[in-house]
Amino acid sequence: MRLRRRMEADIERDLLEHIEMETLENIGRGMSPEEARFAALRKIGNVLRVAEETRAVWRWMWLDRLAQDARYALRGLRRNPGFGVVALLTIMLGIGMNTAVFSVVSTALVKPLPYPDSGRILWLANANRRFHFEASTAPDFTDWRAQSRSFEAMAGYGSIDSTVQDGEQSAKHSFVYTTPEFWRIAGAHAVLGRLFGERDRRVVVLTWRMFEQRFGGDARVLGRSVLVDGQAETIVGVLPRDFRFLPPPGMAGGMSGEAEAFVPNIISPELQSRGRNLLVMFVVGKLKPGVSVEAARAEIAGIQARIARNNPAMRDFYTVSDLRVMPLQEKLVGQSRKALLILLAAVGFVLLIACANLGNLLLARATARQREIAIRASIGAGRGRLLRQFLVEGLTLALLGGAGGVAIARAADALLVRLNPAAVPRLNEVGIDWRVLTFALGISLAAGTVFGLAPAFSLPAGSLYEALKEGGRGASSGRARLRLRRALVAGELALALVLLTGAGLMVKSFARMYAHPASFEPWKIGMMKVFLSGPAYRQDTGRAAALAYIREVLERVRRVPGVEAVAITNPFGSGGAQVEGPPRFPPGQAPQVFSRAASAGYGRVVGIPLLAGRWMTDDERTPVAMVNQTFVRRIFGKENPLGQRLRVDGDSPPATIVGVVGDLKMSRLDADPDPEVLLPYNQVYAFRRLDVLIKMGGAPAALLPAARQVVQRIDPSQPPYGVTTLEDALADSIAPRRFQLALLGTFAASAVLLALIGIYGVMAYAVTQRTQEIGVRMALGAGRGEIAWMVVREGMGVALVGIAAGTAAALWLTRLMASLLFEVRPNDPLIFVLGAAGLALTALAAAWLPARRAAGVDPLEALRYE
Q1: How many Å apart are CA 228 and CA 534, to the nearest integer?
Q2: CA 454 to chain centre
Q3: Which of 20, 352, 698, 794 could form a disulfide with 562 if both were Cys (CB 3.0 to 4.6 A apart)?
Q4: What phi, psi does 689 have (nearest 5°)?
Q5: What is the DSSP string of 131-178?
């Protein structure tokens, strides 16, 4: 601004000096001073025009004109605060929602992992098609690491919940066991102490979170010995505050929360010699510079083929397994990629609707500015100059809305992280970075350009005299603008119906997920976990101690006031079940079977119905088993399963099937029930993790803490954890789907609201434009009901066009979200009918208000109008 003022002053000074010099020359020629000055001014011409022409050659003059247009746009918003508030809130809503969703998508799909050269880190696994599990065995890992030449480092890791006892304090923590190469791949370093290496055995490295919360941030913890599952371990290091461990999908199930400590993963030759199916783990490797993913995949595939040829006992396993070698980031995203992209497209619809609404608002405002536009045109403003003014006004509005939208996105991201950080991979890393700001700026400029040019349709196409006349309306151009506004509203309704249909399909999916048998009441069932660890409960010698502990838990918890029944269960395995007799399936094609140990009260606690046979007891003398309805259907078909004998693993004796129970979804709500085998807990060889299930007659908030204290007192070295209700645990199993439904429902509600505002605005505008016509109709005998019906009919005509277009679009687009649905077809007719009917009714309500206004027009006032 200082430079501009100085240059303006220079122009003024140069012009004055030139006039003075010309005046002096004229006086020298014999003119009087008055004549000389007049002649000098006449020779130079219009001083203001000369100054304007001089400024026009400045290179940055276009920027000055843009600034003038922007200041005019801001003055226009101040003069019309009602329009300004509505317009700003509309665009802030659209840009804010899009920016918030993009920040989530960018973090999950685009932002590099928090590891150095993360693009070179690959995930390696054998994906078992039969058991739907993706991992590797320790022998496979060691062979890959020893024989591969494509990787500079390869690490194997897994997770487990372990009890940490320090003095008298005992608590459960989430541990990761890993080979030392993991530190090199992750680029980790210790902020205190050191990390463990190849020769370390009984050592622990703490995360900063555990260091602060469990040990109070005291650096003297280094070198201290603590008991981890009854074994003495030495704390040797602490990781930095910003270190992040990113578990792949499926691994988090081994931990009750975020990783809190790391211990060495010891792969001894003795373990490897006992078979390739021992010590299941996850594997990551870091490529050497310049090596492609395809080359590494081909090399590992060749190694795996040699492994399969040299291990005929594992042939069936490798036959039903597919080798996975992919970037770690791709693995972490998992199935979230498609859902996130669908949500990004859905929120884009909201922005399009917001732009259409703003276009309608600006068209209505341009109608009120007809005289102003005509005056500008009459004094020389060309069509291009007027278009630039409209565009700058739209961009100014969009940039203001974009700034507010970024603030909305920041608050929305914080809310999403607080509500459910596990719903989307890396959601706790979401934030406003340069990618998000660039996206927000881009959509702000695009949106401002789209709706900013809408008033161009209001430019006078005919005589300026007609436009300047008091009350001149330009009927033909007014009808053209009205048709455009109706088309915009029809488009809004079509987009809103697509979103509404998608949200309806998700709601029906949730209803199907939560469809339980009448006897299953998960909100009345409390649960807690116990992981038996330490020397007293070793798997080889601690069986008697584990059984005694379970009996004590069942007896004491049963006596807690308000407890109706208690049971323990141990989901100990997933694999094949062999039924005695001739083979029922070709090799490698038997269905996956889920095995669960349980106490006799399990059926009463969860309310599972007995369909045939009898319930097992806690004192069975011979091995028995119960199977669920899905097991019978897939294994036996129409054959009677009672009395049949099966073996759930190679070491256990065959068990006789004594009962058949109904199906229950006890682990994931969004998955069909697996074939399941129930075994008496005292007939299962190994016990580690126990789920204590409690059927409560009172409020869970009061009963669960009391039950937890009872269990804690039985053996203080085995603290219960994961205390919650079964309802909450099942809800957590579909956290990503809840996240998707919440966002899609929010988008649909916003879209419907904006569309209804649009149809109301168009009909109100139409009533205002046709006030004189309505007066004439009423003067000629039209009743108020006929006038109201005329307006409603026109409004519903627009709505029905939009609904028809939206239905056609939804039939095509909802097919893309088929993988997000559960037991619901993408073209479910009930959802489509309800969505269309609901939107039609709300559109009818939006059109009824302008119709009432039209019916209330006074004919005399209308005929006197203008």
Answers
A1: 8
A2: 34
A3: 698
A4: -95, 130
A5: TTEEEEEHHHHHHHHHH-SSEEEEEEEEEEEEEEEETTEEEEEEEEEE
E strands within 275-327? 280-287, 321-327
pLDDT for the residue 592: 76
pLDDT value, residue 473: 47
Q: What DSSP character marks residue 609? A: P
Tell me how crowded residue 710 is: count the other CB atoms within 10 A of its CB. 18
Query: Quick one: which of 638, 485, 533 has its CA closest to 173?
Result: 533
The rounded distance, in Å, linking the Cα atoms of 476 and 498 is: 34
- CB 783, CB 471: distance < 8 Å: no
Dihedral angle of Cα 790, 795, 797, 799, to the nearest 10 degrees: -160
How far is the C-alpha of 744 from the C-alpha of 423, rounded, in Å? Answer: 14
The residue written with tokens 């649909």 in the block is: 748
pLDDT confidence of residue 189: 93
Q: Determine the Cα–Cα distance for residues 667 and 572; give it in Å rounded to an integer.
A: 13
Three-state SS at 551: helix
At 356-412, the pLDDT tens digits run 888 877 777 766 666 666 666 666 566 666 777 778 888 888 889 899 999 999 998
What pLDDT does residue 627 have?
93
Q: Which amino acid is at 861?
A: E
What is the DSSP code string of 666-684? -S-TTSPPPPEEEEEGGG-
The sign of the torsion formed by the CA atoms of 556, 561, 565, 569 equals: negative
Residue 395 sits at the vertex; the CA angle it makes with 392 and 398, to the nearest 5 degrees, is 150
pLDDT of residue 279: 61
Q: How far is CA 38 from CA 24, 48, 51, 52, in A?
A: 12, 16, 19, 21
* Residue 138 · residue 267 · CB < 8 Å: yes
- Segments in the chain below pLDDT 50: 60, 252-253, 270-271, 274, 463-465, 468, 470-476, 865-866
Written as one letter, the residue type at 120 is R
pLDDT digits (tens, 9 = 90+) for 676-696: 899 898 887 666 788 999 998
Give pairs for 539-544: CB < 8 Å, separation 24+.
539/685, 539/686, 539/687, 539/688, 543/685, 543/686, 543/687
Task: Note the pLDDT of residue 441.
Answer: 93
With a threshold of 0.85, does the pTM exceed it?
no
Tokens of 569: 């269960």
* Geometric angle at alpha carbon 354, from 348 and 426, rounded to 5°: 35
In terms of Cα–Cα distance, which of 385, 318, 360 is closest to 143? 318
pLDDT at 470 (0 to 100): 45
417-423 contact pairs (CB < 8 A, 24+): 420/735, 420/738, 420/739, 422/252, 422/732, 422/735, 423/735, 423/736, 423/738, 423/739
The span from the CA of 114 to the CA of 400, in Å, is: 33
> Which residues are CB-neighbours of 449 under 8 A, at least 6 positions away?
391, 394, 395
Half-sphere exposure for 60 (CA within 13 Å, toward CB): 6
* Per-residue pLDDT at 61: 53
838 C-beta neighbours (distance < 10 Å), count = 14
The answer to whether 708 and 528 have CB atoms below 8 angstroms apart is: yes
In sequence order, the 6+-apart residues with CB closer than 8 A to the CB of 626 are 613, 615, 616, 657, 658, 659, 660, 661, 677, 678
Question: Parallel, antiparallel, or unpaired for β 721-725 and 525-531?
Answer: antiparallel
Q: From the CB of residue 5, how many other CB atoms can be counted at a distance below 10 Å?
A: 9
Alpha helices in 158-231 (DSSP H): 181-186, 208-213
Encoding tokens for residue 499?
A: 């979103």
Q: What is the pLDDT of residue 268?
A: 55
* Distance from chain centroid for Cα 252: 18
Q: How far apart are CA 545 and CA 145, in angstroms?
A: 40
